[in-house]
Write a structure and sequence with these properties.
There is one protein chain. The chain is α+β, with helices and mostly antiparallel strands. The protein folds into two domains: 110 residues, Phosphorylase Kinase, domain 1; 225 residues, Transferase(Phosphotransferase) domain 1 (Transferase(Phosphotransferase), domain 1, Orthogonal Bundle), CATH 1.10.510. Helix content is 30%, strand content 18%. It contains ten helices and 13 strands. The strands form four sheets. The protein has a six-stranded antiparallel sheet, covered by helices on one side. Strands 11-12-13 form a three-stranded antiparallel sheet. A two-stranded antiparallel sheet has the order 1-2. α3 runs antiparallel to α5, α3 packs across α10 and α8 packs antiparallel against α9. The radius of gyration is 22 Å and the shape is globular.
Length: 399
Amino acid sequence: MKPLSWLTLHARIRVRTSMSEAPRCPSCFSSDNAPSSVCGHCGYPSSEESHYADLPVGTDLKNNRFRIGHVLGRGAFGITYLAWDPRLARRVAIKEFLPTEVAARASDRHTVKALSVGHENVFDYARGRFRHEARMVSMFEHANIIKVLDAFDDNGTEYMVMEYFDGETLAEYMDRNGPIVVEAAISMIAIILDALTEVHAERNGQIHIHRDIKPSNVYLALASNRVTPKLLDFGAARTAIGERTRNLTQVLTPGYAPFEQYQNNGKQGPWTDVYAAAATLYHMLTGVRPMAAADRAQGEELANPRVLAPDITEALADALMKGLAMNRTARPQSAREFLDLLEQSASSAVAAPKQSSTAAPDPPTEIGSHSGMFSATSQSSSAFQKLLELFRRPPAGTS
């Protein structure tokens, strides 16, 4: 798998790394490079340039506990950096809370401040929700949910430290390769649905909802020559800002968000994530993002996936459309129920992976105990690995 492409940067200004020690590469963090335009270890440009809103490369956080490298991703609610943990000598990902609707980077290039006095309450409330999100995700014990390693405040905002793997998002993979064959798509969504059962499990009388399942929030982590899907970016802080500003366009993602997320008093629950998972599967199979629920509510009709991908069985298409039902009560009410429905409907189209009788089984991936055809075990992970690397849906008209 190719590494993530470097982001196209606008409004560029040159920044310097800390002079307290030899400059480190902002990607592999090697410090024994001779002067060069690229890192001699990983090939990353040694002269890093940054967007005006980014922390300068080499910035130290949490009293020198972490050092900032290059940007991994940038969005309306924050910036994610590759960073170096010198204590444990490893790379990590650090997400900085910077919601551009209510806050901005100060002229010192480090501090984050509310845009105005009128935005301070919203910013402070959302910071609290970001802290809550970090605590919440740190409780999940699942191989396919990204692990939160630390959380702290600095520079007037909040930071979340997460495990880091080379790889790319499912969205980036599909942008490059197009639709995914049925077997790989089903194996992928089975793993995500199994992870969601952990998210939705009741804790202290409460359940949590992801609220933003989509291809760009599924990371294909590459480690030890294996691909492991990881669920990213829970939406607690994002939802908090939407609640206070009433700006739904910042809170949800059209095409993946069900209609109840558009409503001020829409009842949300595990069925909300079921819709988004179904929309993600629809996109994987057809190569087309589903129509926005708001448009469907106005009478626009969502195309049956078989129209876009004729090799999908009618039973699988029906199960998929049930997951995409506009009425929340007509959908499967849990991730497990949707997984069972997919298993029942697609059994004629997808063969269960077989374990070789002569080879020792792979070690378990510890991602669930569902015993059906799409069991989230080392078998489905191995099948996904093989299909991801070797199979792509051929273009129309080719064999």
